[in-house]
Prior knowledge:
This protein is of the alpha/beta class. The protein has 14 helices and 20 strands. Bound molecules: cytidine-5'-triphosphate.
Amino acid sequence: MKKVITYGTYDLLHQGHVNLLRRARELGDWLIVGVTSDSFDRGRGKLNVRNNVLERVEAVRATGYADQIVIEDYLGQKIDDIQKYDVDVFAIGSDWEGKFDYLREYCEVVYLPRTEGISSTMLREESETVVRLGVVGSGRIARRFIPESKVVGGVEVVSVMNPDSAEAEAFRREFELRSAHTDFDAFVNEVDAVYVASPHLTHYDYCRRALEAGKHVLCEIPFVLEGGQARELYALAEQKRLVLLEASKTAHCPGFMHLVTLVKSGVIGDVVDIKASLSKMVAPPTRELDASQAGGCVTEHAPLTLMALVKLLGRDITGASFRSRMEGGVDVFTKGIIDFPHATASVTLGIGVKTEGNLVISGTRGYVYVPAPWWLTDYFEVRYEDQTKNRKYFYSYDGDGLRYELQEFVSMIVSGRLSSYRLRRRDSVAIADLIERYRNKENVTEI
Ligand code: CTP
């Protein structure tokens, strides 16, 4: 029996796929089709696949050409499959001409003619409503955001708003946006959604005005500096059926998401202690050192560290106390002890003191170690007393990582989903509550 194997994503299954599968089946007596898993596609940067793996498998099955379907989940799997299933022919569309010649060592390789004029990418683009996004602010994070937005489907950054007209115009020109505004109302009229990347103290006001104007909002961290403001904004978004998402990039990072599910599944037993540290040194003049702009390491770094604590230990916070080193009216170093009913945690933050920026989650059976920079989780280890049981996990983390939060934001808008499991609204409120407690100097001691 002559066995043929072929691979693909088969998103929005189309005539090109059907032709390819028919031709591949005709090359032998048995056709094995490898369909990519969702995580494999995400890992190789295909972020906008519409159908999930079950839907795509069903669509391939329905063509009637596949005798066997396997899931492709890792790089290098093709060689394993060819050997495991005793495959005679590897077939793929001619758009891959030459790319799979390395498989000739294992079986015959055939490039089949590709059907012209159709692809999943084309179908996705045709059916896509493109969210017109406006950026408020044109500072460092906004500049990193624009290149990241280019790799996310269904969204286009069209406008920028900055009260300083020269800065707004320079940003517009550099990133070839359609418009630049100094007036928020004129700006908001031109967009469907807003990314708030302006100075901390302006977040609340811009978020509220955007929501009142009926626009979805993705807001940079720190979202707002008071729990009450966070509650009010989420209630307003809910009432207007709009998406409001805190841009907590780590919460959207594939490696961090897997870490949370592993810990929640009990791989280290009950979590008893978390140590999360984040420091980035800054030099004056910068807004991080400016008290009048809510500078300091808590407003700067607490949102990501507290997000990790809340996601892993919940919102039932029984106590919080802080030690800070102050310089020029801002905390350049803060250590916070946050207590939960059966666990404790600490955050160590610096902008004028350098710390080892790692994350350690200790449990009754073992611990998870995420080296610096843990907030861009691309690697972590689960460690036990018996070291032979230790496991290492590696992830790809593409670009600056902002693409993951933007992709979730767009997907929420398109599907009318107001809440994201990656960062629940109530978790975001809990983070704002804690930042407010610190800023109100509750249990804060200067060192
Ligand atoms: N294919 C084809 N003719 C097309 C489109 C795809 O023969 N018009 C083939 C590919 O060469 C591959 C298989 O179908 O062998 C699965 O490809 P896949 O990447 O899933 O399809 P595309 O439509 O190319 O998807 P995308 O646009 O997301 O890359």
